[in-house]
Amino acid sequence: MSNPTIAIDRDVRVRYAPSPTGLLHVGGARTTLFNWLFARGEAKRLGFDGAMILRIEDTDRNRLVEGATQGILDILSWFGIDWDEGPDVGGPYAPYVQSERLPLYQQGAQELIDKGLAYRCFCSPQRLQQLREEQRQKGLPPGYDRHCRSIAKEEIEAKLAAGEGYVVRFAMPRDGTTEVYDLIRGESTFQNANLEDLVLLKSDGYPTYHLANVIDDHDMQITHIMRGEEWIPTAPVHVRLYHAFGWEPPAIAHMPLILAPGGGKLSKRHGSTAMEEFKAQGYLPEALMNYLALLGWSLDGTTEIFSREELLANWSLERVSPSPATFDYDKLRWFNQQYINHILTLDDLTARVVPFLIDAGLATDGALDPSNAEFARVRDVTAVLKDRLVLLSDAPDLMSFFLVDELPPYDAAKLIPKKSDATQALTALQGAFAVFEAGAVDDEAAIEASLRELAEKLGLKAGQLFMPIRVAVTGRTESPGLFETLRVIGDDWVRARVRAAIELLSTDG
RNA sequence: GCCCCCAUAGUCUAGUGGACCAGGACGUCACCCUUUCAAGGUGAAGAUCGCGGGUUCGAAUCCCGCUGGGGGUACCA
């Protein structure tokens, strides 16, 4: 548990390097967050500079998704992460897109070939597949058999001359060990014999992750690699690669994995996994950041709510746990609710609710402007039911009866409370109607006094009077407090709806 | 199969040899508040600190083994 001491003894440069193959996964967002907190928070607290770099690893042309890069940049900004260098803002080590850096990798591969530390491999995909098949059948560990590692120079020349395709593979040492020092796990020793001659350069001239990440991290002066735990198995190869180039590897920290509730990888089967989905469902970026920060990190085991600034002020790599964490949707919801109900200002919350109402056709673009009356209207509504809002996307359903003139049809039976009957309910509504005719609902205290008086006069319990009114004006049995609900709905609608309820109950009964 | 990582309640976690018959939070349950639903308040249940061996006067904390979970095993990242 006690992590090795992390020495930040120089200016820090970290990077997040997504591949534009789709939407940004929460795991990726968490990794980005930790990188960002390390550079912008911890390093700066210690008096060093901390630079955040974004690099696009688009070396797999098959999985490339159009527009994915922009989507990742956008959602990262929404999340609250910013960066100093990247594909959109440039920087001293541009370009920050790997497909634009191809010559660098090809030169690197050639350099290793020249040094005898890498070799061309002419094996066809078919042969490799067949090889794996045979190994599987014999119960042998799968892996490249290094067939091309020792072919004669003349043969290589001949194949090259014949225009045969090839990949470049790393010539791993066949014996000995490689040590990897992980900032949160300490040292691990790997047997070189277990490590493969990984492909460095693909036959299409693009590098694999292994080559590109080593060359770029070195070229971009990355000081700390903080990436997912799934990279632990290839870390020793990367270390060997740095040595092959004669470079000092950056410090490495592998962040704990985020697991699905049932175990295993978090996938769509369990719920949302992409940041865009969480955004669309009405999760707040600050709630997401707060929750994700606590997945694998904690300050003291007690403090739960952290603003972005508090995270910057407190987060440290030293307190990142090595063990994987299960994603808990319920707890995320709780954080969202905390921010909605207790942390955001009413104006802020209102501004975030508005787009969801517009999408649902419950507000117009006019509500976007805080100086507009429609915004004020939504703010009044938000004020009375924010404590039952968990997701912003809940807003349209929760708020609809405040925002539409005509209530959708509802069952007349709902007007009759459990411990009451139709006659009582009708009497209650008729009495209430008289009260609403006599006084304005914007005086909550006065209306409450009048209605309580009415209940007493009719010999009804408060609930027997209030519930029919509630259903009459909202169409449902659940709502905010009755008097504030009446106030926000307003006199005209209240009278019309109570009148309609009386009619419904009379004709229905 | 092989390699690697991890291991405190259902979940996130605190805990770095004695103040821990293990603290906080989510979730669950109960009660209070109450015009409904929430929110809020109070409280409860829930962990033989995965198991077995050591080391030590003393271990959740150190060591070894096992088990379990997870990751990797691609011309994907």
State the CATH topology of the domain at 412-508.
Arc Repressor Mutant, subunit A
Strand residue percentage: 5-15%
Regions with little confidence, pLDDT below 50 for 5+ residues: 1-5
- What's the architecture of the domain at 412-508 in CATH terms? Orthogonal Bundle
Shape: elongated
Give the integer mean of the pLDDT values. 95
Largest sheet: 3 strands, antiparallel
Following the backbone from N to C, one meets helices and strands in this order, namely EHEHHEHHEEEEHEHEEHHHEHHHHHHHHH
By CATH reckoning, the class of the domain at 412-508 would read: Mainly Alpha
- Radius of gyration, taken over Cα atoms and rounded to an integer in Å: 32 Å
Roughly how many Å apart are the termini?
70 Å
How do the strands line up in the largest sheet? 3-4-7
Give the number of helices: 19
Strand element count: 11
Describe the structure in your own words.
Residues about 1-5 have low confidence and may be disordered. The protein is mainly α and about 500 residues long. About 40% of the residues are buried. It has helices at about 25-45, 70-80, 100-115, 125-135, 155-160, 210-220, 235-245, 275-280, 285-295, 310-315, 330-345, 345-360, 375-385, 395-405, 420-440, 445-460, 460-475, 480-490, 490-509; strands at about 10-15, 50-55, 120, 165-170, 175-180, 185-190, 200, 225-230, 250-255, 260, 325. Helix content is about 45%, strand content about 10%. Among the domains are: about 345-405, Orthogonal Bundle (Helicase, Ruva Protein, domain 3), CATH 1.10.8; about 410-509, Arc Repressor Mutant, subunit A, CATH 1.10.10.350. A three-stranded antiparallel beta sheet has the order 3-4-7. It has a two-stranded parallel sheet with strand order 1-2. Strands 5-6 form a two-stranded antiparallel sheet. The termini are far apart. α16 (about 445-460) crosses α18 and α17 (about 460-475) packs parallel to α18 (about 480-490). It is built from 19 helices and eleven strands. The chain binds one RNA strand of 77 nucleotides through α4, β6, β11, α11 and α17.
